[in-house]
Design a protein that fits this description.
294 residues, alpha+beta, Endonuclease I-creI, 3 domains, 6 helices, rod-shaped
């Protein structure tokens, strides 16, 4: 009986031509997907196929086992659907940012209770443009300089104001303005404000038909417009703020709450996959500069 050879001849099984194998379709956290598999015993054909994927930016794996090449191409869409109609994968976030505002900002309840004339005078005091402070508990004129107690008057070098009888007389401040003046006198010039930022991160494939647009960038959007245009889902675990606009008065700018839309960012996160980021900042905006929220 003869013994088996120590160098058995290897046998390639399969076809030298590219043979498509059963494909795999599905969906993961990045969206829909399709894996297309080819097998061949011809390494040159496998190399040409891999080069085609390489040139077209398609992710692939190349396995070689016992003389057979197996190439799996990973497409970021589902071949069973129209690739252009596949929905994007959206992630919504709310980030609370702390910013500093002047104590004379209208989002401060004390400043909002002051007249425009009082804000003007307090602004001069904040900028160290007032030379003296006048004590005034009644409307009696007292031109003697004292430490801050109640009211503020202009120095001789400042032009007259319609809020003063003349430039030497004190200005009677209301209780909110007097409190704010005392706050400023202690050295406080700003206060912290929480400004919510809404962020949308959208993952799409290269065949997504809607391109990122700068439409409404730099505009102020209301909650209703934000929901209507961007279709914020009902299952997000947050509520959008909906504050009441401050009451406007004669001489004071009209301010309204809304979402300032920033410009978009587009980043390629993988081959044939893109990430689009859009952000909005909630705040109190002057209508004269930004227009009425849409």
């Amino acid at each position: 009986m003869s013994l088996p050879s120590s160098n058995p001849t290897s046998v390639k099984t399969g076809s030298p031509y590219l043979q498509i194998q059963p494909a795999r379709t599905g969906r993961n956290e990045s969206g829909n997907l399709t894996d297309v598999v080819y097998e061949t015993t011809d390494e040159d054909q496998a190399y040409r196929l891999a080069l085609t994927y390489e040139v077209n930016g398609i992710m692939y794996d190349w396995e070689q086992t016992f003389g057979k090449s197996r190439i799996t191409a990973h497409y970021p869409w589902n071949f069973k659907n129209n690739p252009a109609s596949e929905p994007p994968v959206d992630s919504w976030e709310v980030i609370n940012q702390k910013v500093q505002k002047s104590v004379l900002d209208s989002s401060n309840m004390l400043a909002n209770a002051c007249t425009q004339g009082e804000i003007y005078v307090l602004g001069l005091f904040l900028q160290n443009k007032l030379d003296y402070i006048i004590v005034l508990n009644t409307d009696t004129i007292d031109p003697t300089p004292y430490p801050l107690v109640g009211s503020i008057a202009y120095p001789e070098t400042v032009a007259p104001s319609p809020y003063l009888i003349n430039k030497r007389l004190p200005l009677s401040l209301n209780s909110a303005a007097r409190t704010l003046a005392n706050v400023i006198n202690t050295g406080v010039e700003s206060f912290d404000v929480w400004r919510p930022q809404l962020k949308l991160t959208r993952i799409i494939n290269a065949r997504y038909p809607i391109r990122a647009s700068a439409t409404n960038a730099g505009m102020i959007l209301s909650n209703a417009t934000l929901y209507n245009i961007w279709q914020i889902p009902n299952n997000v675990l947050f509520q959008l703020p909906n504050l009441i606009d401050p009451t406007s008065s004669t001489g004071k700018p009209v301010l309204q709450y809304g979402w300032y839309q920033d410009g978009f960012q587009v980043q390629q996160m993988a081959r044939l996959k893109y990430q689009v980021v859009v952000t909005w900042e909630y705040g109190l905006w002057p209508v004269a500069l930004y227009g009425t929220p849409i």
